[in-house]
């Protein structure tokens, strides 16, 4: 019962935070962390012990799957070089640079443990970045790189974290063995994602052949997909995170959704939107719940003179070190890309100082870092305590909070003005797609109408075809016509939507009256209300906008 109440309380505050963030204009992750800390700060407040393995299994696969599924695949492929450069090269650069800096700043932390902390701090959280700053403010190219990096560096960072922890436990490290293990984890992780996608596709095919299969069964297959991918990879000692990302990236290309009923597709989209919001909010509230205990147990190594100043200063310096390392690596990659373009006699597109600075500040840390650092073992193989365990947990939590705070304050200012005013390339692409699709639809409708034989049926078909085609012609005018034609089409569309919405409201009122009178039962009412709701959503999505 206590666990159930705890889950309900967390979900209630996730809901509340979504509304409060709009009112107080505070980035949602920061607000949710503050709510979690406030809930746990009193001695009798909420407290929870996180099992890192369970934490990773429950939260990370669906979140990464959802991010990978919605990520723009074309842009990720086009930007694969800088993405891989950050997702793999920067991880190793961070481990070395940050590891030595940490060991120098806090000598009580053994070098191998410093490398472990650096590895677990290397994954970034693009979801937090998108909630801090408007996507229309950050250049699209930079945002796509950040998204792709965060999808892949979770896997590379955690794999290296495992190697460094194993080195701390055994007292030895083999670069050759670590490299082979890394390649194994990546290759098998990708194969596990593909295997899980194949299993899901076959399951949907089987369910589709069974008559009267409820749509909810097909939705459940899609919900289980990232968990199956994660568990298959973990079973073979590979990267479950990379498996979930692979499944998400390939779901759209695989055509798996063609095996789902239309109602199942609609339900899946709605359910995933809700799950991503719920899991993201719960993650940051759980992080906030850990803060009071972490702060109360400030390691004595950081409190030689001042109880609060020294730990805060150490965390700030380490966070700035991560930002600096990130900036240096982005600058190196930028200069390398410019040099390669010149050698290949291509046009160079360097980022520039402000974009590099924005990309460096945007490398905030999040849930994966928290889950990884909490999975540190309590003891070594000889039974002695794991060296500096409480200290590195404190520093990891501090860097997560500090990186979020710095990004919340600095990123909107640094990114302001980076995007040139004018039409959004994405909007222009959408407009061209709408026009092309509408022209294809008109051609198809006119072709079908022209195939009719003589008689009343043929005249009726022509009249209906002209009515349907007029809808597509108005859509073309809205997207690609002259200003006057657009204005006329917008006004015509507005009147049509207004009248149809008024009719829907009358339908809904009459159904309520019939339900109250007992003319229809709840089942019939629910079915008709659902149909009306979907129609209303489509119409409101079609409302013309200037």
Word description of this protein:
One of its GO terms (cellular component) is plasma membrane. By secondary structure, the protein is mostly helical. It folds into 3 domains: 1-423, Na+/H+ antiporter like fold; 426-480; 491-545. It contains 20 helices and no strands. The chain has helices at residues 2-24, 28-40, 52-70, 73-78, 80-105, 111-121, 126-132, 140-170, 175-209, 215-235, 240-254, 262-296, 309-343, 353-361, 367-374, 389-415, 425-450, 456-480, 483-517, 522-541. Helix 8 (140-170) packs across helix 9 and helix 12 (262-296) packs across helix 16. The longest helix has 35 residues, at 175-209. The two termini are 52 Å apart.
Give the structure's gist in a few sentences.
The protein has three domains: 1-423, Na+/H+ antiporter like fold, CATH 1.20.1530.20; 426-480; 491-545. It is 78% helix and 0% strand.
